[in-house]
Amino acid sequence: MEVYEIASRARTASRTLATLTRERKDAGLRAMAAALEQSSDQLLSANARDVEAAVAAGTPDAMIDRLSLNPQRVSGMAQGLRDLAGLADPVGQVVRGWNLANGVHVDQLRVPFGVIGIIYEARPNVTADAAGICLKSGNASLLRGSSSALESNRAIVTALREGLVRADLPADAINLVEGGHETTGQMMRARGSIDLLIPRGGAGLIRTVVEGSTVPVIETGTGNVHVFVDRAADQQMAVGVVLNAKVQRPTVCNALETMLVHRDIAAEFLPVVVEALGGVGVTVHGDADSVAIDPRIVPAGEHEYEAEYLSLDLACEVVDDLDSALEHIRTYSTGHSEMIITDDGIAQHRFTTEVDAACVLVNASSRFVDGGEFGFGAEIGISTQKLHARGPMGLQEMTTTKYVLTGQGQTRH
Question: What is the model's pTM?
Fold first, then answer.
């Protein structure tokens, strides 16, 4: 089916969604969750076919992990939808309101965008999260997953649409878009049919959509995440945060990729943290100073500070001071999430003020940068741009606003 035909049907559904009460939308989310759980066997069977094909194609382990579903992940998708049902409805919220001198009252209200297109890679759980967030925020969705997850996404969208029908809501509120690169191109050129486009995936996909789309885009970004372990850090705390940020799930965008250590504590701290990391299979790649301190650190290659590993690998550099750490982060950060471990209030303030990223963490793991952890129920992605939405994108970020002016016959002179 052509993208424009799908978008037209979604537009019709979006007009219904924009008028729904919270109760109707929440009932739809709960029905979608139940349908996912009832279709668990079919979902896992479809996913097994995708995983088998990906393994046969030599897909890297990090991508296989993102692609794979299990009963716990299916339950997690369903729970994410139920969590969304428990959140306040953003549609109709008054952002601000005031009276003009002439007596006209002005309200700025949150309203849906209408039709949102989402282009994403590998992770089939994104299909349920994105569909649920769009529905709750009153938007119809066009979901363009990667070909590697096609069987999984077909099964998920089939279940979600069945749930909508059971709740007496339009099935065309959720749409799977299939096809090759030409389909992605159609979505990027569908200005007027699609109101907003969100790419979620690797740097290549995001760059392609941002540079080639005529539809307005919210840019999500890769996560070249850093931690600066300051000389005033609680070193035991630092080890725990580094371990969690790196290994709790190393294949996601909020996983730690580079550790910067203040020179004053490097000789004491590095052997301890390298021992802990090595114990869970992490290879540390470091500069000459860090290698000299601990020979278990392998020399870092020329470009190892520039991008995500998405694996059990961690870049390391010994830095002279906070200024050096900030300069390193300015050079290599993707603007996603950056951490500092310190008990120095001045260093903390400088770091949170001077680091330019969607999320800045003090003495806490970057793994908290997640819509679910923020209390959003789920997320569309992590926005690394600065317009409209930045950081984890939940319900409010999937709305725009309009002004409603109410008078008693006033005219302008």
Answer: 0.87
